[in-house]
Design goal:
This is Pyruvate dehydrogenase E1 component subunit alpha. This protein is of the alpha/beta class and 344 residues long. Helix content is 40%, strand content 9%. The strands form 2 sheets. Strands 1-2-3-7-6 form a 5-stranded parallel β-sheet, with helices on both faces.
Length: 344
């Protein structure tokens, strides 16, 4: 069954992006899609272990939000579906791939795997296996930015934090507690609900008393925005406005992005609960195809430029796999390393 909830309208013509901005968004989404496709291939070939949750279909949310931030300056906090968020935040594809292979060259030194991607240099606060676990972490990051700026007088402490989580997490206690604190203290944070309609195998409409999650923001006196999560330009427009508010000290925003994952909950999920009609409906709204069509229609690029980006990204992914395959396993003698903080 296809959800009766309609996607919000957005005037794409008013997006006013430049060719450079459009190609950055396109390249980032293609990077996410091809990376995840390669992950599926490597998983089924036995190169990856455990649970691997792919992001196919949701790329517009990650690219649209993260590319509105300052690279290596603002903070991004993820979920267990974290590979693409890390890539958008600037973590090199080879380091993410090596982490998925459990190698010492991975961004988490091979200790995290698929669900615990982390990179301090890129201000990527990590992926979290437990539902809603990242929400308090992101809220804490936003609090320290606010404290350093207001209490310690650091004029450079104007970082914004973006916190991603799914529709299932919006029913957890951390969601309500943290939104309350963020509103009370006017924290510079954007809470992004990636509503892909399903919390593992539970349909969203069956699990919450108020399916329109963005409306919950009103309880805390903060702006709540609903956006078409399959339209990267719509997401990017909302992101830029929310980032500007947060950086100006005007407090948090709750963004509900209506999106859809094209694959099952994880690569171990046969995806038998969702109907064929529903999956076909959403696959026809592929965000990468939608942006490509817009860029061509607006004469912001030609087809060969997009194909060259596709080739470039595929080469980057292939190189990332080789890097991961040729990297060393973590040394057994370092089993207990990174458990506690180390002296510089």
């Amino acid at each position: 069954m296809v959800s009766e909830r309609t996607l919000p309208e957005f005037n794409t013509a008013a997006a006013q992006i430049t060719k450079e901005e459009g190609l950055i968004l396109y390249q980032d989404m293609v990077l996410g899609r091809l990376f995840e496709d390669k992950c599926a291939e490597m998983y089924y070939r036995g190169k990856m272990f455990g649970f691997v949750h792919l992001y196919n279909g949701q790329e517009a949310v990650s690219s649209g939000m993260v590319k509105a931030l300052r690279t290596d300056y603002d903070y991004v906090c993820s979920t267990y579906r974290d590979h693409v968020h890390a890539l958008s935040a600037g973590v090199p594809a080879k380091e993410v791939m090596a982490e998925l292979f459990g190698k010492a060259t991975g961004c988490s030194k091979g200790r995290g795997g698929s669900m615990h991607i982390f990179s301090a240099p890129h201000h990527f606060l990590g992926g979290y296996a437990f539902v809603a676990e990242g929400i308090p972490v992101a809220t804490g990051a936003a609090f320290q930015s606010k404290y350093r700026r207001d209490a310690l007088g650091d004029p450079n402490a104007d970082q914004v934090t973006v916190c991603f989580f799914g529709d299932g997490a919006s029913n957890n206690g951390q969601f309500f507690e943290c939104l309350n604190m963020a509103a009370l203290w006017q924290l510079p944070i954007i809470y992004v609900v990636e509503n892909n309609k399903w919390a593992i195998g539970m349909a969203h409409e069956r699990a919450t008393s108020e399916p329109e999650i963005y409306k919950k923001a009103s309880v805390f006196g903060m702006p709540g925005v609903e956006v078409d999560g399959m339209d990267v330009l719509a997401v990017h427009s909302v992101a830029r406005e929310a980032v500007a508010r947060a950086r100006a000290g005007e407090g948090p925003t709750l963004v509900e992005a209506l999106t859809y994952r094209f694959r099952g909950h994880s690569l171990a999920d046969p995806d038998e609960l969702r109907s064929t009609d529903e999956k076909q409906f959403w696959s026809g709204r592929d965000p990468i195809e939608k942006l490509a069509a817009y860029l061509l229609e607006q004469n912001l690029c030609v087809q060969n430029e997009l194909k060259e980006i596709d080739r470039k990204i595929q080469a980057e992914i292939d190189a990332a796999v080789k890097f991961a395959e040729n990297s060393s396993e973590p040394d057994p003698s370092e089993l207990y390393r990174f458990v506690f903080a180390e002296d510089e």
